């Protein structure tokens, strides 16, 4: 399989600017062969403003950027893309727009069959997985399905938060919510990506990058912590 993915937990890390914390990884990931990246700003309402933010950042890294919302034919834009970056925002709005513009299947084909590099951040990472069932977002719109692009056979929870023992908040913790998800049958494992972490997928190899650990939730099994640099390739084969 030709897939190359960079699945980032968050686009902005406390104390830094937009994509600052992962810009070196972005440059290594897209490399010199990619000259133009197709940006998908569907997760935010202000698509023009979002595209400008992304375009300015990528230009500073040496890449030109086209935004899919400016294309007269979104499917054709995906067909011609050298690289794809789907930004964060509301995951439900994002997935609905991907379905409305009929690009889900074409993105999957370009990434899995043609080897077009795919970068996602937050919601853009969510939609790269099996489903958006483990997003943190409110369902402000209703996509035709919770099934996502399916570039990997598991789910991700971006912005994963650990329990704060000093907090007086009485709502469910992130761990409790993921456990509730796994109370349903036939639910895939969930990788909790803390802010500052990201997953690099190259073919059938997956590596945890960034500055924070990740936590893996598997139905019926104890959670497991993984350090930066861990080989998580087993997630791609279902051997977990």
Throw out a few tags for this protein.
11 strands, 240 residues, single chain, 4-stranded mixed beta sheet, alpha/beta, 7-stranded mixed beta sheet
Give a short summary of the structure:
With 240 residues, this protein is an alpha/beta fold. It has seven helices and eleven strands. β8 and β9 (205-210) form a beta hairpin.
Segments where pLDDT lies below 50 for 5+ residues? none
Give the C-alpha Rg: 17 Å
The largest β sheet comes out as: 7 strands, mixed
Q: Structural class from helices and strands?
A: alpha/beta
Q: Give the fraction of residues assigned to helices.
A: 25-40%
What value does the average pLDDT take? 95
What spatial order of strands do you see in the largest sheet?
A: 3-2-4-5-1-8-9
Strand content: 15-25%
Q: Counting H and I runs of at least 4 residues, what is the number of helices?
A: 7
Q: State the shape.
A: globular
Question: Whole-Å distance between the termini?
Answer: 20 Å
Number of strands: 11
Describe, in plain words, how this protein is organized in 3D.
The protein is an alpha/beta fold and 240 residues long. A hairpin with a 6-residue loop joins strand 10 and strand 11. The chain has helices at 23-30, 47-60, 74-80, 91-100, 104-112, 123-126, 174-181; strands at residues 4-8, 36-40, 64-67, 84-86, 118-121, 155-157, 190-193, 197-202, 205-210, 214-217, 224-226. The chain is built from seven helices and eleven strands. 43% of the residues are buried.
């Amino acid at each position: 399989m030709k897939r190359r993915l960079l699945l980032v937990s968050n686009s902005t890390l406390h104390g830094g600017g937009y994509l600052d914390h992962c810009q070196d990884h972005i440059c290594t990931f897209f490399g010199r062969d990619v000259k133009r990246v197709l940006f998908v700003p569907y997760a935010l309402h202000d698509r023009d403003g979002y595209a400008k933010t992304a375009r300015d950042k990528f230009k500073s890294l040496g890449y030109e950027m086209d935004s899919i919302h400016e294309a007269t034919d979104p499917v054709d834009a995906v067909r011609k893309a050298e690289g794809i970056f789907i930004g964060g925002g509301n995951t439900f709005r994002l997935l609905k727009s991907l379905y409305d513009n009929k690009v889900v299947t074409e993105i999957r084909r370009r990434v899995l069959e043609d080897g077009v590099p795919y970068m996602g951040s937050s919601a853009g990472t969510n939609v790269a997985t099996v489903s958006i069932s483990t997003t943190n977002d409110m369902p402000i719109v209703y996509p035709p399905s919770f099934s996502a692009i399916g570039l990997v056979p598991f789910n991700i929870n971006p912005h994963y938060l650990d329990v704060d023992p000093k907090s007086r908040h009485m709502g469910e913790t992130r761990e409790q919510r993921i456990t509730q998800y796994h109370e349903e049958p036939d639910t895939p494992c969930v990788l909790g990506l803390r802010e500052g972490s990201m997953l690099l997928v190259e073919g059938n190899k997956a590596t945890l990058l960034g500055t924070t650990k990740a936590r893996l939730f598997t139905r019926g099994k104890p959670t497991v912590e993984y350090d930066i640099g861990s080989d998580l390739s087993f997630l791609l084969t279902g051997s977990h």
